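Hello again, I could really use a second opinion on something today. I've dropped the whole record in just underneath, so have a look.
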Amino acid sequence: IASVSSVMVIRAKNPVHSVFFFILVFFNTSGLLVLLGLDFFATIFLVVYVGAIAVLFLFVVLMLDIKIAEIHENLLRHLPVGGIIGVLFLLEIFFLVDNDYIPILPTKLSTTYLTYTVYAEKIQSWTNLETLGNLLYTTYFVLFLVYSLILLVAMIGAIVQKTMHKTTRVKRQDVFRRN
């Protein structure tokens, strides 16, 4: 589903549909991360990408006045060049990946398989969230607090800078003159 959705991000005629397929790719990738046992990364992936970036893309696409007819007439003109570049890109990826560690083409008669070992279970029986929480709130507590304060000040500064911008079209109250 993630692969088909990523192809549909490119193939969708409507930019809004493309953004929705993009969000679907994020959800499916997050599901794959959950299946790998990376619960925290899956949650952060959803919060950061779907909650912030994809919604930002959606608002930008909705605010732009895109003419879909102009997109259709230019599509076929660039198709041969794009196809050649795409085939070259796929060949490069194929030759990069086909090495001794990741064999695609059978080069030897005896095939060796790579095995994935979960070292976290061998060290301690904590989950990823417990390990991260233990590190953040014990060893790196001061750094975590300083970083959160820096982000808070940056967020307040961005809000103040956006709202206190002086323009001629906005009527503002002068508190001292009013009192």
